[in-house]
Give the backbone structure.
Amino acid sequence: TIPPEILRFSENIGNFALVIKGEPGSGKTIFSLQYIAEQSEKKSGIYFSTRVDIDSLYSQFPWIKESIPPENIVDATQSILPKKMEVPQFIKFSSLPEFLKGLYTAIEEKRTEKFSPIVVVDSIDAVASSVGLPVEDVCAKIIDVAKGAEVGVIIITERTERTALDYICDGVVTFKRKLIDERLFRELVIEKLRGVEIENPIYYFTLHGGKFRYFDEFRPIELTTFIHEPHPPVRDGKGTKFYEKNMFSTGSKIIDKIVGGYKRGSFVFLEVTGEVPPEFIVENIAGVPVENFLMQDRGVIIVPCKGLSPLYFFEFYAALVGREKVQKNCKIIIPSEDKDVEKRFPWLVYTSYRVDHFVNTVNSIINEFKREKEDNVLLFLCFDKIESDFGSRGAEKIAMKIISRVKFEKDLCIGTAFPSTKIDVKLREAADYFFKTFGKKGRVFIYGVSPPTVIYNANIDFSRPHPTLYFTPIT
Ligand SMILES: Nc1ncnc2c1ncn2[C@@H]1O[C@H](COP(=O)(O)OP(=O)(O)O)[C@@H](O)[C@H]1O
Ligand SMILES: [Mg+2]
């Protein structure tokens, strides 16, 4: 879970000095503890802490017990109260020489044939203020001792501006805590790492559960490789809890936990900003209910988005639920100028570019499904395509007609659009559930505006027999 560049850096340079910068709460402590924990096969960490209470450190981060035993935790400031646990090398650090002596002694005591120590100073600001010297001087001296003893050192500072620390140290990493739409977002920026090519200078991460974890690129399901084992649906028909509560499942247990399902008769709107891979639109919030309806043999009507062919949609859902279910339960609608397009696939329905013809076609498919299945239907409409085919007024008409029928007949409609489309604002107004998704460097994130949620990273878990969409909250 540590970015590979940082691992390579610390392996290449044994006696490295890495400075970790960031405002309070940005994850510096968690990251450095975790770095030590992950190196625990070859290295034992000596943690110079400004916290007085070891117990609270262990109770917050129980997983560090093995890699940083209590005797390896040193009070980095002159502590007034001795810690609860015995710290054999407990020293009062009232001056820099005393601190450096303490540092040196601790390093030599911890050095064994199997383990070479690695030092974390959390934080240098606190040490400097307790010995009453400038941070730069203290830092340079600590690095001298560490290099002399041939051990790596991680220096933590809350000073985020450019300082002399940047060139004194071999590596600089900055932790950032940002707000996107008033929601927490976290970034780690690799500023420099001596001797290492930095492939990826920015990592997005979470501290969920008190652990640092960065996010991987979104990996779409590959359609050509194999057909996946269909998973049992989240049942939400007659006799289920969802049905009693007048709800549909979102199609995903994880999303059900977050929003509690969708009220029957809802319009769910997904606004897509930035560089979101189109495959993600098919797979995420919009994709899981399609799968869930198809598995329960309910009718699904899809208008594909621009840039993805109807065949892609067909193949995609076929890979997840099997071709039969898609052929039986799904219709994909596209307008076509060609008057006598041959009916190439039974699941493909052509309409003209006339708004009323399009709406009538949708309505008659809904009617047919309802007659045949006596159950609710799901519509998944990509309004970017509808707007480019029918113009913004046409798209608005289509949206309002279909959404009002869905609300009246207690069906479910999922719509997607970009903020750049004219219809976007109308869809927001009509939405019972409103999600936003955005992409950064191939990673995808999603959050609820209504209901409001934190930002989640979304990806697909391929380790199960059925690929499963999962969300990781950014906390
Ligand atoms: N168990 C937890 N679950 C979720 N978030 C946590 C948990 N523990 C810590 N955090 C998050 O981590 C932050 C503190 O991280 P920390 O590494 O101590 O920051 P820093 O050392 O940069 O001040 C908290 O503000 C909180 O947002
Ligand atoms: Mg801290």
Summary: Residues 79-91 have pLDDT under 50 and may be disordered. The chain has two domains: 4-214, 241-473. Residues 22, 24-30, 207-210, 475 surround adenosine-5'-diphosphate (ligand 1) (CB under 6 Å).
